[in-house]
Design goal:
The chain is mostly beta strands and about 120 residues long. Helices cover about 0% and strands about 50% of the residues.
């Protein structure tokens, strides 16, 4: 059984930075960050495979960095140059997927989810 717990959310001004963490128990191959703003569908932000392959949504490329610690029991999302449109609930997800080079795996492909952490960016 895989359990995920996010932390690190908060409120920042536009241009600021936050680092999200996701503590993971259990073994999986792919871990990812998703976000969901009020009234919108949950969308993929970034994903990382066990071999270190990463992929990002176009909207966050160059601003966000996904990483894991060596033991692969903590997932991180470093968010820089934050914009008001980054405001959302951020979720950690995990599964035995293979991260490809073209797109973040969809929401439906992930079996394991954390409860989310809120990020609010003010202008």
């Amino acid at each position: 059984q895989v359990q995920l717990q996010e932390s690190g959310g908060g409120s920042v001004q536009s241009g600021g930075s936050l680092k999200l963490s996701c503590a993971a128990s259990g073994d999986t191959r792919c871990m990812a960050w998703f976000r969901q703003a009020p009234g919108k569908e949950r969308e993929g932000v970034a994903a990382i495979d066990s071999d270190g392959t990463t992929i990002y949504a176009d909207s966050v490329k160059g601003r966000f960095t996904i990483s894991q610690d060596n033991a692969r029991d903590t997932l991180y999302l470093q968010m820089n140059s934050l914009k008001p449109e980054d405001t959302a609930m951020y979720y950690c997800a995990a599964d035995w997927l293979v991260v490809g080079a073209t797109a973040i795996p969809p929401v439906a492909d992930f079996d394991y989810w954390g409860g989310g952490t809120q990020v609010t960016v003010s202008s």
